[in-house]
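Extended Data, panel c. Modelled sequence:
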Amino acid sequence: MSKGKRVTLVEKNKKQEAKVYTNVINKRGKKHLRFIVRGWKKDGKWQKKQFASEADANAYAASININLENQGEERKLVLTSLNDKQVRAAENVFRELGNSYTIEEVAEFFLKHNRAPDFSIDILDGLEIYLNEKAHEGVRPVTLKKTNGVLRAFAKYAGDPLVHTVTKESIDAYLKTLRANDGTSPAKRKTWNNHRNEIASFFKWAGVRDLTTNRPWTLQNPAEDVLRYSNDRVAEQRPEVRVSSPEVTRDLLTYAMNYKGGKMAKLFALIYFAGIRPDLETGELHKLNANPSLIKLRAGRIAVPPDVAKTKSERPVSIMDNLKPWLEAYKDFPLIPVNGKNDYAHIRKQFDLQQDETRHSFISHHVAVYRSIADAALQAGNSETMIRKHYLTFPTKEEGEAFFSIVPDMAKGEAVIIKQKFDKPNALRAI
């Protein structure tokens, strides 16, 4: 090798890749560290570029390698409002994303799930405002109680975060913690849907613009993409509808007549033979107890006004002929006696009653006798579709007639099934 001949450090057949090398140079008697980028060709010639800053050298090498990966496409001179640091950051983002996502998709996702609104509030503080507004709109207390319970449970699970920071994943995780009554099995799909819907409704409301509450508190609803089970999937887990037979109903009412002086007999007669919703705390039964004049015995009907009915629609309930003697015999008894909630639970447990078995029994036996789903729907305050799907079983006409022939025999202290015709109304009385 002749003296002074230059030797290249890059082999001719070496794969092109820009790398950073260090080099020390003497300048005016002082040593300076420089960073050399080399390892790629342009117009068939190996290239190199020198930098005083290692960061600049690494950024330049990265840009060269991006061009090499893109089949040798050269960098282009463009007019941009970005500074050098922002340009390098954008190039690094492109390199990290590769072909998986576009930078627009990434930006849209980030802004949707992380951008803060002008006003921030945590879930529990927002919940108080939400409940107050719903109460002002006339939402029933029992509904507000359920909403409060669900959202407080979710807030506790998630650590009461700011509303706009809640994610789909945190809602999914919360719903998966829900358990059935046994404390170990996953909650039923209906429970999942109920909790999911309460959370979704809150976040939908939180995203509505309203200056009086400084909303929106969030710019997206994280519950939108959370699973909601179809009605068919929910129905697969619904327990089989059970109806009390005339004999079971008679035995239960006999028990009620002899339980603590008959204090629960009037209540059970009314929910069996009028189909009143048996909610002792806030529902129809509770409101009838507070307004006994709504039970118009002489007129033969129970007036259920909108503020009493669950559906907020007025409905007249005909007092069945066999219900009259029960109401007459126990006219001096309150509908819901002192400690009635515990006594009601005791009798239900004694006879293993399902939650809505008394309404199921009323509706099914009513249809069996009168062959009219429409009339049963009017009496019970349900739609015909709801009755067909959830309430209706098919007792025989004879069973229906026996059910509506159960009256109190006050002398014997028991309920009895009497013989009667259903072609015309009968004036029954306590025996």
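The chain has three domains: 19-100, 123-235, 246-417. This feature is highlighted in the accompanying rendering.
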